[in-house]
Write a structure and sequence with these properties.
It is built from five helices and no strands. With about 150 residues, it is mainly α.
Length: about 150
């Protein structure tokens, strides 16, 4: 039983093991950047495969139902799928932007205050561009404005 609990504890995004920096390792050095590049590329690949599955599904399932209710149901299903793919398309753009930041060695620092975002936060959300404090403040401001 302890082995199973240990395995569950180490499961992360796309099956990657959590990054454990070597003692004295520089934050966002080459090994750390390579780790996040692998995670982001795998995530992007998974999203692209989902897009392909949606296209295939819509081609296979497209039918001209004589019943208006059946047609409406199918159109609603397709609309939901397309909205989900649109969100994924935006996420792919954000992943590409993040990969550029890694390549330019500007990844891992908060865009607002400039401090380290932190490995654990980046593993939870590899496209994060704000530290937890700045993100929390941004969310509070957003709620106050009422967006």
């Amino acid at each position: 039983m302890p082995t199973q609990a240990k395995q569950q504890q180490h499961q992360t995004i796309s099956g990657f093991e959590p990054y454990v920096p070597a003692e004295g390792e520089e934050y966002m050095g080459a090994p750390m950047r390579a780790h996040f590049t692998k995670i982001l590329n795998k995530w992007k690949q998974d999203l692209m495969q989902e897009v392909d599955r949606t296209v295939d599904h819509m081609k296979d399932e497209a039918a001209n139902f004589p019943d208006p209710a059946d047609r409406a149901s199918q159109e609603e299903e397709f609309a939901l799928e397309l909205r989900a793919r649109d969100r994924e398309r935006k996420l792919i753009k954000k992943i590409d932007k993040t990969l550029e930041l890694i390549q330019d060695e500007e990844y891992g620092w908060c865009e607002s205050c400039g401090i380290e975002i932190g490995v654990k936060r980046l593993e939870a959300r590899p496209t994060a561009d704000l530290c937890i404090d700045c993100k929390t403040l941004a969310e509070i401001k957003e709620k106050q404005v009422g967006k």
